[in-house]
What we know:
The chain is an alpha+beta fold. The chain contains 2 helices and 3 strands, in the order αβαββ.
Amino acid sequence: RQGHVLPVGDPVAAAMEMHHRARVLGWPIVASVNALRLITGAVKVGQRGLFELPGRSTPVDMAELTGRAS
């Protein structure tokens, strides 16, 4: 039997909601600004905004990733 992993939980739900919002905005790749702080200087960032996501009590600060930093 091959094992399959199905991620679940709040972080997965938030990532799915962020992905959906990014598609609506036309952003190919999205990340929370909190996550981007971990890779500052490694990526180029495009548009940014605060977005209400279902199940969240506060807006999420999200940004579009546009490529690698040079």
